Amino acid sequence: MAEEGLVVTHQFNGIHLVRRGGKAPGKLELIADRILWTSRTPGISAVEVATNTVTASQWSRAPRGFLLRLLREDGTVVKFLGFRDVDRKAIGEFLGHSDVALRDQRMCTKGTNYGDLDVEGSSVVFKVDGEQTFELPLDTISNAQLAGKNELALEFYQEDVGFSKQDESLVEIRFHIPDEAKGENAGEKRPTAAGLQDTILKKANIQPDAGEEVVRFDDMHCIVPRGRYGLELFDKYFKMHGKTHDYKILYLSVQGCYYLPKPDQIHVAFVVHISPPVRQGATTYPFLVFQLSMNEDLEVQLRMSEEALRKHPKLSADMRDTFPELFGTIFSSLANTKILKANPVGTSPEPFRSSAGAEAVRCSLKANDGWLYPLREHFFFINKPPTCLAHRDVHAVEFARVAQSMSGATNRNFDLIFHVKDGSTLHFSQIDRNEYNALFDFIRRHRISVRNIQRTQENDRLLEAKNAARVDAYLAKVDAGEPVGDDVLAEGEEEEEDEDFVASEESDVPEEFDEHYQAEGSGDEEAEEAGGGGGEKRKLVDSGDIVKKPKQEDEDEGDEEDREEQRRG
Known about the structure:
alpha+beta, eight-stranded mixed β-sheet
């Protein structure tokens, strides 16, 4: 609001202040000898521009309304957006009282990508045929580096506060600057890529990369973001060079490191937590996950002076160790942060160990399969998406589908649900039933509330009773030393006869049950001698080896059956 006693000549509502990272809505007032802008958003300071400090002003068309650009004596530029076309007259007359002419700035809309690049005031300006195409304020540039002999890459600060994931911002732009002008401008002297880099670094007050790297690790396997990266560790920052993306990250952005051995006992996931996160388009990565092999030994030489080594007691000029231990020691010392890892077995509080003796359990977060690490102060899930949850942020824990997993052998998994204090939930599913006791004991030791504690304890008792009732009789006898199987008869026990079994006196198949049976083919001659040749001889039919009885024997058997029926009657 204008001070008392001063007359507000004009007031414009809905005017945005164009600042680093975006726009802020507010209102603009023309008061005597100054321009005052006040924000409608709490926490944003007012901007006041004295007209006697303005050296130049420009009026140009913008995507939404018109843009007022004020260049001050100190080289800074202040821009206001949202004016109407009819507002130009009032603003031009107001600035005219201070002998500042409001000049119309024509913008080039040809779409040509070949023009002139130069530094004007506090901005990098790109022009085509003398008309401005766009400008890049120097205070938004975080770094300027040569991507080749004739290629200049400009990187920009990323403002994450107040922006959603859907918002888009410029992160990098590259210019190809040929050595000599061609065509109509042949022979014209132009600035080189190296010359423009020096000018931008100097005017943007950016400290160039000074000194050589402390150590370099080539072909690092990075799980998040996925790819192979070369890591260069400097004194105050580190660089990641990939096939398509490069990052420069200050150690001040490192919030912590995590040393997470994988259950295969071969690899270690080394996680770096950074804030603000790195970006690849609209995707942000607050965690960098490197996979290191424990079977690989390295020996490195650090390019550090004796004075620098005294600042880092854990470092020495020559170092040798396994890859995870060596990399973790060097990185944590340069970043001045400690590495968080599970406590050794036997320390207090007792660390988590799965049923297989590992430091993590296999599970799924939504549709992503990974590993959940219960640490001393955090729960950490890798690989995608890396998720860290502090114990102090957990309101309660709920064990789900535990009773169902006990009711039958078809469901051998359960779920673990974390209810966070901010109202959100994390649902870890497909955890093996054998990990239930270890997770439950760990959560109880760290005094984390369990929402369904009574039902969970009842499930424990039912499970123990069910396991106790499931006894293998054979194994029990073997453990007790009692005879089993054939050894039971070997102890002298007699085999009892089956009193209900009655053997038939005659058998239709004599060769199966009569041990004195003699084959008919060999006894034909004896039968003839005994019977005097008067008896009828039995014959063996070759086809199918079927034995047919004589007709007389059939009649005798029929008479015997009739007599038996008469006696019964």
